[in-house]
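Most newcomers find our protein records easier to grasp once they have seen one. To make this concrete, we reproduce a full record directly below:

===
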Amino acid sequence: MGKNICVIPARMGSSRFPGKPMAPLLGLPLILHVFFRCRLADALDEVYVATCDEEIFECVENAGGKAVMTADSHERCTDRVSEAIVNLGLDLDDGDLLLMVQGDEVLVSPPMINEIVGAHKAAACEVVNLVSRIYSLADLEDPNAVKVVSRPDGAALYFSRAPIPSVARAGLDIKDMPAYQQTGIIGFQAAFLQTFSDLAPTPLEKIESCDMMRVIEHGYQIQLVPTDTETIGVDTPADLQRAEAVLETDPITQKYLNP
């Protein structure tokens, strides 16, 4: 049976929300919410936080978690994860799953992770990416949210910060034409993560500021795993407030806040 390893990249120097991994929600830093929620997933063998900041490292270690230091020069979270695997000295087979959960995916849940693990086993492709349903026009038009469209078989066609597909052109309400946003919950075949890091950045990746476009532009496939459960990637203080309101009534939160 293959290994399923989760790495959560996080850094204090976010351009849109500096210091957000340590921003409190319900009295607990954001990074610990993500870590504890991932650790609840039975499908995972290990969960690590990869960071270039001592503050985050100590926070995770003091909470009983596992963290690894990485360089502070990475522009892409995938590169941080790739270095973390090397620094940890993990002996992974080519087909093992490396699950990257970005440190701001505060509503990640064990069922979502199980979906990714299952898709990784079933899909004959290098990458699987959870995508969540968009329910409001404001979210569809938000450039902080990366939208995605797929082929009929679920393989990703294109990621964009523009509102795709076009609700206005279709003349439909957002509720009648499902749209999805990319989440920072991405599974890689262990052998492919280093390959990805070695690939040259691509034009559309730079334009859309989305590293998954690098995968598509180099001719590899990304299998999308849709969920109707709304997710919130915390990019701004307003996102933090919105997420805290959801966490307060989420039964998963109580499993680690009040074990």
Remarks:
- The two ends are 30 Å apart (CA to CA).
- The chain has a mean pLDDT of 92.
- Residues 95 and 189 are 5 Å apart (CA to CA).
- The chain has one domain: 4-257.
